[in-house]
Amino acid sequence: MRRLLDVLMPPQCPGCGLEGQLLCTACLRSMGRRMNEPPGVPIGLQSAQPAGIVQIEWCGPYAGPARSSLHALKYDGEQRLAGPLGQLMAARWRRAGVGGEVLVPVPVHAARQRERGFDQAELLAREVGRQLGLPVVSALRRTERTAAQHGLSRSARQANVGRVFDVREQYLTQIAGRWIVLIDDVSTTGSTLVGCAAALYGAGVAAVSALALARER
């Protein structure tokens, strides 16, 4: 099916427009510019470590090819991008991640998932899980539909999320006492991660880390 789609709808790199490649080598290199940097938040980054997150890792800044690729995935429905983007995230975690037993995607609201037909964080988490050999548990639920973060200021983003996450009861036994790695496409203020971590700690997890493709400074 994938080969048929490539024939009927030839891929085009969302970063530079190169035809015939889902993501070109140059754009992948740009998105993974932090690949060989040491773990942790670099000195001078405006956003500090989000509360409750013991480690946060990402591949590069939310700009250029990363922004274009995530836009194509989320809003244009180019789900094929979840493969190479998830592989890039897995490579960064393999290089810099400490601990982590279970991957938990940061969920979109059910209504937004119905509109798109998929949850981009879950697609990314499945690929990261395949690459790292870690289980993926969709334990979190977004209880309120919030405005899209990309159109808001930093302060508005923080107020937008609030406490809108809880843990699905049927997954409690799969995450209790475990070290969770939250998977998201992009981290901005960190307020979404904070909300997710609070819900997970309330369910008895041991620790929460986070991994995103990109981070906005």
Task: Summarize the structure in words.
The structure is a single chain. The protein has helices at residues 2-8, 25-31, 64-74, 82-96, 110-116, 120-132, 154-161, 172-175, 191-202; strands at residues 56-61, 102-105, 140-142, 165-167, 179-187, 207-215. With 217 residues, the chain is α/β, with parallel strands linked by helices. The protein has one domain: Rossmann fold (3-Layer(aba) Sandwich), CATH 3.40.50. Strands 1-6-5-2 form a four-stranded parallel sheet. Strands 3-4 form a two-stranded antiparallel ribbon. The radius of gyration is 17 Å and the shape is globular.
Search tags:
217 residues; alpha/beta; Rossmann fold; 4-stranded parallel sheet; 6 strands; 39% helix
Q: How does the helix and strand content classify structurally?
A: alpha/beta
How far the N terminus sits from the C terminus, by CA atoms, comes to: 39 Å
CATH class: Alpha Beta
**Reading side by side through the largest sheet, how are the strands ordered?**
1-6-5-2
Provide the number of structural domains: 1
Low-pLDDT residue intervals, each spanning 5 or more residues: none
In one word, what is the shape? globular
CATH fold category name: Rossmann fold
CATH architecture: 3-Layer(aba) Sandwich
Task: List SSEs in N-to-C order.
Answer: HHEHHEHHEHEHEHE
